[in-house]
Description:
This protein is an alpha/beta fold. About 25% of the residues lie in helices and about 20% in strands. The protein has 4 domains: about 1-155, Spo0b-associated Gtp-binding Protein, Chain: A, CATH 2.70.210.12; about 160-345, P-loop containing nucleotide triphosphate hydrolases (Rossmann fold, 3-Layer(aba) Sandwich); about 365-455, GTP-binding protein OBG, C-terminal domain (GMP Synthetase, Chain A, domain 3, 2-Layer Sandwich), CATH 3.30.300; about 465-500. It has a 6-stranded mixed β-sheet, with helices on both faces. Strands 3-1-8-5-6 form a 5-stranded mixed β-sheet. β12, α5 and β13 (about 285-290) form a beta-alpha-beta unit. The longest helix has 27 residues, at about 465-490. The chain starts with 6 loop residues before the first strand and ends with a helix.
Amino acid sequence: MTTFVDEVTLYLRAGDGGNGCMSIRREKFKPLAGPDGGNGGNGGDIVLVTDPNTTTLLSYHHSPHRRSESGGFGMGDYRNGTTGVELELPVPVGTVVRDADGNQIADLDEPGMRLVVAEGGQGGLGNNSLATSKRKAPGFALLGTPGDELQIILELKSVADVALVGYPSAGKSSLIAAMSAAKPKIADYPFTTLHPNLGVVETPASRYTIADVPGLIEGASEGRGLGLDFLRHVERCSALLHVLDCATLEPGRDPISDLDVILAELDAYPVPEGQVPLTQRPALIALNKIDVPEARELAEFVKPDLEARGFPVYLISAVGHEGLRELKFALGEVVERDRAERAEAEEVRPRVVIRPRAVDEKPFEIKVEGGSYGNLYRILGRKPERWVQQCDFQNDEAVGFLADRLARIGIEDALVKAGAQAGSTVVIGPGDGVVFDWEPTLASAAEVMTAHGTDPRLDERTRSTRKEKREAYYDWMDAKAEARAELEREREAGLWQDDDAGQ
């Protein structure tokens, strides 16, 4: 049964915006008291929040499809729709967010960070908000826009100060259990550890975390064993602790050859840009299992050679807790020194400036695309694409309002300059978009304003008045008299005769 997941793909759908309402207020003796349609509510966003109490992405592995609440639709009597509830997704500290193409979006490496990954749709305006001095009673409302629909990749990189690396069965799990309160699985067979384990180590001078990374073997950087899947958890560590097995019985293995293999794999692993390569970070060596007499002799024999290569070396026994106190203090000094260096780097970090949108930025662009039936003119831009989504094409007045908005930002003139003619195919938006047969003769929405809306409270009455009933009765009596007179004229002309008269 899967208990740890450090990479998952999420399929997100933010809530849609609610539609605006088209309504006319009706009062006693005043059936057309003005527009009173409310606005639609905005759809809920989807937000990633780093939570220190979350340590795995397992919940998203079982249910990767997440959706936030949509906004409510507007109603009459100036009532706005409800805003969709924001959906918060807790993720572990150290989660890297990437898009579907693998491009990094954000690195959530601190507790409490928030990232809006999918924005909810915008609610449509009701006809009350669309009323102006020239358009006193709009007969339409704007539709809500759909929320973002996308997929992202979450990749967990453990935030630990020290990483324990080494061959399988080198005693890393036993060491982290002896130095901290962590309870990893310990057994006498290789690859017992199937996922990284974190533990907290406390000394009188410092407090830091250590990570037990699953065993590395030769070729791990190329995909052999389990090391490649978990080397990402070493990227954030301040120091590396090489745990070398001095009691191994495998032929051709010894502490020095094991160290060379591990260093080669760490050097072959590409770290993100701007980070120090793994082999250039502070590293210590722990010669483990000295509780075995032969292992102690081997550790004392190879210690001078390892120290000559520049590594601080400690002889330890994870089972007997021998040498762990000195190792804890040494690791604490390395971690505190790295923290001080990072603090100085943060003080001189350049200030991040978020610049507003340029005032002269073009609101749209037109691309001419060739096709089998002539040129196709594609309009791309944030405003035109949103306006098309908000337009109710079943309402002529709404279509005219859209034409006014597009003409106001210069799309009509730009199409003419691009070579478009009456009847040319125009597409607004990427992909299929919304297709039009362009007709530049439409000047304004006033040409298509034919009604004040379709509010059911303004339906025409079907019950006739007394005057209408009286006029209908007189017309009916006149028609009967005219029919009798016509029959009398036909009889006098001999066109027909009574049967009784012929007998």
